[in-house]
Amino acid sequence: MADWQIIDGGLTAPKGFQAAGITAGLKPSGAPDLALVVSDVDAIAAGVFTTSQVRAACVDYCQARLEDKTAARAILCNAGQANACTGQQGWEDAIATANAAAKALGIDANQVLLASTGVIGQRIRLDRLLAGIPNLVAKLSADGSDAAAQAIVTTDLVTKSFALETQIDGRPVRVGGIAKGSGMIHPNMATMLAFITCDAAVSSHLWQEMVGRAANQSFNQITVDGDTSTNDALIALANGESRTPAITAAGPQADKLEAMLTAVCVHLAKCIARDGEGATCLLEVTVTGAPSDAAARKIARTVAGSSLVKSAIFGRDPNWGRIAGAAGRAGIPFDQNNLRIQLGDILLMEQGQPQPFDRLVAHDYLKQQSALSSQAMAAQIFSSTEQGNDLIADTAGSLISRQEAALEALAHPVQIAIAVGAGTGQGVAWGCDLSYDYVKINAEYTT
Amino acid sequence: MADWQIIDGGLTAPKGFQAAGITAGLKPSGAPDLALVVSDVDAIAAGVFTTSQVRAACVDYCQARLEDKTAARAILCNAGQANACTGQQGWEDAIATANAAAKALGIDANQVLLASTGVIGQRIRLDRLLAGIPNLVAKLSADGSDAAAQAIVTTDLVTKSFALETQIDGRPVRVGGIAKGSGMIHPNMATMLAFITCDAAVSSHLWQEMVGRAANQSFNQITVDGDTSTNDALIALANGESRTPAITAAGPQADKLEAMLTAVCVHLAKCIARDGEGATCLLEVTVTGAPSDAAARKIARTVAGSSLVKSAIFGRDPNWGRIAGAAGRAGIPFDQNNLRIQLGDILLMEQGQPQPFDRLVAHDYLKQQSALSSQAMAAQIFSSTEQGNDLIADTAGSLISRQEAALEALAHPVQIAIAVGAGTGQGVAWGCDLSYDYVKINAEYTT
After folding, report:
1. Average pLDDT over every residue of A29-34
2. Staple B194 to which of B38, B41, B234, B394, CB 3.0 to 4.6 Å?
3. Is the pLDDT of residue A399 over 70?
């Protein structure tokens, strides 16, 4: 049982963090494109980065930095240009941005971590970014999470933000975060950008372990299109400003903190999957009975990432054959005569055999989950635009808060439950359906 | 240098083979749905089958049969019902069909191999299949390849057939084949149905090795949507009716036969990729400079299978960033500073850096390759329908043969050439673009 509560404030909900987001002129659209999060004091820093051989300069920079020193004060993130495949010049640009942020903040350059997102092969518009730094620093505030969340998005429809609070030794401890990502989302590392803040006091070794495990159960379990980005990064800062006793070893308090950290990561990961390019619903695949948790997670990812399954979900088609097919090719041995598949409450397959079910009821389940989730997404988009939006003006969008809408959008996943045997391994993965709009968005992105 | 020539006749081009295809009433559409190929004498049989944990009864049947006995006389294939996830009853149905075919042919049941394709979870309409067997056997002929090729397709737009002839010891030796498949196509085994005939005399051990290696360079190198089927099978029969000396060990003659076998498999594999659901072009990804051929093939497959790359190709967008991104996540280590990417003749990236290129020229290259290939596909469809087709009546379709059109459709691939370093490993993979129609076809398939 989770003994924490949802709180407002996102990235700046934990004590001792400020954030800001501004328009520096990096995106052609003129939307906000430069974000900064700063801890008042040195924070323990941990990161999980893309496993791709083709990495952005900021990823190499952060990895080198974190190997060298596990504390940091700030994360600077630009959207618009990925600074990937930009060679030595990209590396120098990265250093220049870190130096500029450090100077404006009055800290050492090696206390600044970096992230970028946008078009691969494009250098950051350095002059604009550098010119924007003073304004960005001036805007830093303890209410700045939303502005930062807005400044890191690209093709995202909605911003992603979340925070939880629990008690440790009778004092509040918080974990907050923001994330972005809607295409090029696939397991194999952090698979998008996510920045996590925490005001617990925790040892750096333990924090890195917690962050790694949390990533494996959240960001590494979402898939939109099977593509891993050059820039994927999860960076998590823990600054100790909750003034709770330092957590330096495994135990109930470490478990409590890790569980809350994982819950924040899972929420943000699900937000990303739900906002998958062209998606009309959130897909949640649960696998049980596998030889190990890792095996279960792999089967779940494979099903959630299957183009055939995703197309069927978009077509509101309870096509259990494709689910069985995807589970079978995940590379995890199991006896097909033990396979059990359930869609929502509807049993589709048992002991490897299709079961009679009401196809119309299953179709309606798929339709309804998508409709409820889409309505909440529309409300979220509505509540985040000042002008509103004609397309969703007739929904109840304005009656609920953005936070409520965000939770509501995740509250109606299409649930596929798969059992593969008598093992104890279990795992969950999240994805979305594959729609015409995915193709449209990705056929027309750069040119 | 290939010292063989393209010949007519497909599956029945090699000596001593007959084939037939009929409508048994298995497909709701009323299209042909039952195929048979028979060797006049015992043939050495080799197979490569799906690696999925969820396998159709026919796959289990063939694997068991081939472990037991490496000779066979016939392959019976039905389309319409996959006979996968049909449990014990499906297994019994498979045996019943083998028995019926054997009886009508006057051979032993264990000389019959089986294949099925169609909707997963559906039993074969056994009464109709059994009722069709006498007619099917009566139709067997040395001209029956096209009829068989027609009877095994499902969502395919065109049939796939090919044959080559070479000389061994001054006598002609032939390899022919037919294939089907257009969705659920992805490396990891044979990934579709393909039946190969050969009139060389070859030892069973050598033949199985040759077929396995040929599959790895052809059918295992194509990807349409990343999904592996429950029914994928490549079955190859060699009956010795060329009366050439038996090939029983490695050497120039074995090499010659294997090269020709591989060429037939590659041709059929490319036909499948080109006919990928919703595809408008054939994508050919060549990788060089990798640590090994297997590593190169893996990178090539990953790029050819990337949804982002495929969407970009459909959008006629020379998005080298996505190509680099996909190459980077293939799981093969390389130094990104050695990465070189070429699209057709256009250099997009060198030493990991984007190169200046004329975006319009690149766009036109993509558009032109697709247009030329699509025109040939249309001609092929036109020439295979008696009534013609309004949509393509104004092309030059009727002026070329179906074989010429099939070759022409493959003659204009979108070529992506990637070099990753100084290694000697090289490999090729084939795929297609990702279009709105892929989603449409797969969102609406069963319900």
Report:
1. 94
2. B234
3. no
**Which residue in chain A is spatially nearest to B307 when comparing CA positions?**
A225
Q: How far apart are the C-alpha atoms of A327 and A341, rounded to whole Å?
A: 10
Selected residues 242-301 of chain A with any CB under 8 Å from a CB in chain B:
none
> Would an 8 Å CB–CB cutoff place B52 in contact with chain A?
yes
Which residue from B230, B306, B322 is facing A328, i.e. has the nearest CB?
Answer: B230
Q: Is the pLDDT at A226 greater than 60, yes or no?
A: no
Cβ contact, residue pair B438, A324, below 8 Å:
no
Residue B186 has pLDDT above 60, yes or no: no
A133-147 pLDDT, tens digit per residue, is: 999 999 999 999 999
Rounded Cα gap, residues B136 and B138, in angstroms: 5
Q: Which tokens belong to B195?
A: 């039946």
pLDDT tens-digit series, residues A262-271: 999 999 999 9
Compute the distance between CA of residue A219 and CA of residue A205 in angstroms, rounded to an integer: 21
Minimal-distance CA residue of chain B relative to A436: B436
Structural tokens at position B241: 């009716």
Active site residue A191: yes
Both tokens of residue A230? Answer: 């050059």
Instruction: Determine phi and psi for B112, rounding to 5 degrees.
Output: -110, 125
- Which of left, alpha, beta for A395 (phi over 0: left; psi -120 to 50: alpha)? beta
Q: Could you read off the pLDDT of A281-300 as tens digits, one per residue? A: 999 999 999 999 999 999 99
Query: B63 — contact with chain A (CB < 8 Å)?
Result: no
A–B CB contacts, 8 A cutoff, strictly below: 232
Contact A329 B51 (CB under 8 A): yes
Average pLDDT for A157-162: 89
Q: Considering Cα of A49, then A53, then A56, then A58, what sign does the dihedral take? A: positive
Collapsed DSSP state (helix, strand, coil) of residue B296:
helix
Show Cβ contacts of residue B191 under 8 Å, excluding neighbours closer than 6 positions.
Answer: B50, B181, B184, B185, B219, B220, B222, B228, B229, B232, B272
Site from A50, A51, A54, A154 to mutate, B interface, most B CB atoms within 10 angstroms: A54
Mean pLDDT, residues A231-236: 89
